[in-house]
């Protein structure tokens, strides 16, 4: 049974590992940049999207606001990912997006 994390705050003062899909534009891009702004030095952000040029643009913006983190990009299309690949990743992917008023603490 899955554990509940309702009410748990993300501590961005710790080294973080963050993966964002759809990071080349739109909400994914903004979330990547704004969240990475708050990461501690040494944190790692992995950006996935179909557009290699969009990913490089996002990567550049992230490093402009926080040059003390590592940003890894990979141009991938997960829309036709095989069951075999998904199995290797540990099951079905869950894509969601959210926003918290007041920011992270």
From TrEMBL:
This is Very-long-chain 3-oxooacyl-coA reductase let-767. PANTHER family: SEPIAPTERIN REDUCTASE (PTHR44085). One of its GO terms (biological process) is tetrahydrobiopterin biosynthetic process. GO terms for molecular function: sepiapterin reductase (NADP+) activity. InterPro entries: Biopterin_syn/organic_redct, NAD(P)-bd_dom_sf. Keywords: NADP, Oxidoreductase. The lineage of its organism: Eukaryota, Metazoa, Ecdysozoa, Arthropoda, Hexapoda.
């Amino acid at each position: 049974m899955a554990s509940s994390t309702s009410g748990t705050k993300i501590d961005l003062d710790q080294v973080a590992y963050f993966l964002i899909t759809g990071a080349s534009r739109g909400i994914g891009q903004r979330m990547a940049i704004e969240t990475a702004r708050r990461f501690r030095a040494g944190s790692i952000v992995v950006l996935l999207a179909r557009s290699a040029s969009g990913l490089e643009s996002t990567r550049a913006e992230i490093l402009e606001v926080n040059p003390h983190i590592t940003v890894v990009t990979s141009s991938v299309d997960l829309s036709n990912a095989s069951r075999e690949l998904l199995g290797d990743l540990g099951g079905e992917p869950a894509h969601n997006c959210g926003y918290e008023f007041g920011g992270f603490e």
